[in-house]
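pipeline/complex-builder :: batch 7 item 3
reading input block
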Amino acid sequence: MATVEQPPVVTKPEQPVKTNGRWIAYARLLQMRMLELQREPEVIFWVFVFPLLLALGLGIAFREKPADVTPVAVVQGPKAQQLFDLIQRSPQHAAIQVEVLSAPAALDGFRLGKYALVVTMDDFGVHYRYDPARPESVLARTQVDDALQAAAGRRNPISTETKSSSEPGARYIDFLIPGLLGMNLMNSGMWGIGFALVEMRQRKLLKRFVATPMRRSDFLLALVSSRLVLMLIEVALLLLFGVLVFHVRVEGSLAAILLIGALGAISFGGVGLLTASRAQKIESVSGLINLVMMPMWIFSGVFFSYERFPKMALPAIRALPLTALNDALRSIILQGASLHSQLGRIAVLAIWGGVSFVLALRWFRWS
Amino acid sequence: MFNFFSVSLWLNQNSAVDLQYHLGMAVAIQCRGLRKTYEGKVEAVRGIDLTINMGECFGLLGPNGAGKTTTIEILEGLLEPTSGQVEVLGRSWQSSAGDLREWLGISLQETRLSEKLTVRETLQLFSSFYHHPGSVDAVLEELSLQEKADAWVGKLSGGQKQRLAVATALVANPKILFLDEPTTGLDPQSRRQLWDIVRQFQQRNGTVLLTTHYMDEAERLCDRIAIIDHGQIIAEGTPPELIERLTGHHVVEFALSDGNATNGHNWSKLPGVQSVRTEDGLFSLQVQEPHETIPALLAELQKQRAQLVHLTTRQASLEDVFVQLTGRHLRED
């Protein structure tokens, strides 16, 4: 078949008519959303700075201190020197700080919390005075007793060996960083989508958009996309901060972390959309958002493990989206778990997000 | 061959439009028996029929709460009427919402655009929604917003914000422009600026539908108006037509010093008087020819020994039409 040479096309429209492509509206919506966020100093603070401050504060408050030295008072008496020597000779001597003083002074110090334990030795043996309500006092009694027995020649029937565990990966800050990451994704998803939508509805901006040929799906897609862009920055900042400041070790793959982060961001975007689907006033949506987030702040293991709640409640807690997100992030970041092993949690997130999106679109009010 | 075909098609389409236009048949908006009942109780619109022609500037005039916004929002396809038919550019909202959205430029009452975007960004955003938008720069120039193009929307004055709202409608390059209370709350200068914008759009063969509760606005800007009260059209026509039909051309207003018991006098018997209104001691006579009425009025007052404290004559306005029709003023604040 011969190719026909095409005649040169001479189309010179009198007025150059601009024609917009299919994705121009989406691109513009996303661009303007990002510009708006960037011009909102509060957003920068709450989304990016606040989580870092929280991590810094909690990380410092719960940092690993050198092993505590137990302050112990020894009451003056004929055998006080013998007692003092025994403790100094014991293998635990480094962890026990002994002061010898008069009985009233020792008791005063004990009452004020200066000493964890008061020890007296007379002809009948050693007497301990401790407070069972004070953990450090209980600990001191056991510690000093062990020290004395060992120094006096007790031999342990079973030989034991101890390894201390304060390496990266098992510290509180390691537990905290993924939790903060999850909480931040929830906060910014709920506020960034829920609050923003109701504000636009209250301003009648949604109604104004609907009065144009704008595709509603483009609008929602742009909103969710803006969350994904923010998610990237949130995750990168917080992880980098953890690595640089607290030497958190990231075991899992970055791709897996970002994938879970994206799923979390989308899932909470859906929940945010649902929360905002009907509300007309920002006051009412603020209340709703807090109502939705409060249980997850408490139960989903952001700051401490949810395993401490009654066993009966655990299945319900694990079904919460933030629990699934936190658990998945912890497994991947701290233990290097594969995405495959997180399928259950991924499913929980997907179901929350999917169901919310479907319901939200059904109920959504544009005006 | 290809070129010839497309040219002939183009000619056909255009001549069809021209023909319709010249026969005065081109209808932009038409609605029949429009009703809207909110939550089964409040009847905001109670049976409205309208025909708005291409190239016309049509005004819905009425007091606050008369049903103007509900009516225009039904025509804009933003509200579903409880009953009645709407046709815009020969299409219905049910079957061709997508096309209609491309052809209409809409400015709603009280839209607060994003404050942290600039004027230019806002227009770029709105222009991106349309297949064939107008040029952002041209619209900026037309609405004298070039100087503010890079200012945040939050920093604009009321008049500038309102012009931007109209700009977001014009950047659609629309066939019909809908403006809901475009000048409410604006200073006189900003109002005149907006009127100029509407006239410019009309000169490019655009059709305009606007609502207002300012009678001077309706009178100066609109080719035809419909006066709406309690969800119904109570009068329709060109402003001069309405004034002529419902009142005289002129109004003679006078007041008498206290104690003159002339309230009972039948002023309508004076020559040329069409109707009489009394309000707070002020008598308004709607008259056809003031030079016939005033001498007779003065003679009558002399006869009654009544003392005049106030006498003016002015051209009748739409306000008089509205008062004549409803017994109330348009703006009762």
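note: The longest strand of chain B covers residues 27-38.
queue -> next item
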